[in-house]
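Handout, section 3.2

Students often ask what a structure token actually looks like in practice. Rather than define it abstractly, here is a full record for Peptidase T. The first block is the sequence as you would receive it.
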Amino acid sequence: MIKNELTSSLLERFLRYVQVWTTSDSNSAGRGNQPSTKNQFDLAGILESELKSLGLEDVQVTDHCYVYGRLTASKGLEKIEPFCLLAHIDTVEEVSGKDVKPQIHKNYGGEDIVLKSGDILSPQKDLALAESARNQETIITSDGTTLLGADDKAGVAEIMTALEYFSKNPQAKHGQIEVCFSPDEETGHGMDNVPLNLIKSKYAYTVDGGHIGELETECFNAFKSEVTFTGVSVHTGTARGILVNAITMASNFVTNLPRHESPETTSGYEGFYAPMSIEGSIESAKVVIFLRDFDSESMEKRKALVETLAKASAASFGGKAEVCHTQQYLNMKDGFKNRPDVIENLVAAYKKAGVQPVFTPIRGGTDGSRLTEMGIPCPNIFTGGHNYHSRTEWASLEQMEKAMTVLVNLIEK
Ligand SMILES: [Zn+2]
């Protein structure tokens, strides 16, 4: 069906997109700026003109740097329910994304790849890379002075090239498809100004996963607990029997959290308590903890335990504790309860591409989970990118091609 011509188009797009500097800035995003960095408009503008030349309609870049476009349904298929494809255009700020010089390793044979920075990609240490070496895949890395930006420009290139397939093959029928490329995903603000006035779809897919086969339909339930201890301050020289130290209560509380349920002692489907900050004085001390759990009932138990431990610490030192829980995001799994077809269609598209779906729980939140909360169920598809957020980030062209084929299968009727 699709080969060679589209594959080289996919590669060409990917190489071009990663060279556009789109690093986002969480401080700026935290101050309410979107996009957090102006240069994200550079890639948005490129995508806007490409979507137009591919024949999409209503193509536009919003003031907040979201790129939107709509592929009109083939004649006679206007009644098919539309869906939206999403990917993000920014890259993470921890590693430079400026002047990316992508390196292509054709028919990669498994030798160590030594990057300019001295970093080494070795199949001995990287099982996914070893697998790609066995298949002699084409590997793309940075030169080691920057990240690569496969997260998520691989996803962007895959969506764009899948659209190119339908633009070049009018005999391939499809319903209406919407696309939305978003800024600032890496800052956690990627969905803050998502243009819901434009997006009419009732379900969507993000293309922002990793290894071939990954299919993500679950993420953590996430709450932030702020525990405030109140003590009594007096001169330390005459404090006996009077002073109540909020710092002591706070540290006692943190020590009593279950040690085997922390980020550093859990993986897979296990949840945790993560103390994030502790600050204060004798009179008042505040502890911020992140609570994470895939199960909503277990999350209620975690909240209850935080309250119990906080009150116990306060009581044993004669002070007071107040607990406030704030929801950060929810497991998107529940969002699919009424729409199992959203996942079933995707699984069928994987299988048609010869890809075995591997359901992977996301130990964090995603743009997809935020959209799901907004009532638009949104699973996440692999991109073929690996070692995200690092200088040793790499992508496999063959896996990217598979991701694009999954998208084509998903769209084609
Ligand atoms: Zn990403």
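Discussion prompt for tutorial groups: The first helix runs from residue 5 to 18. How would you have guessed this from the sequence alone?
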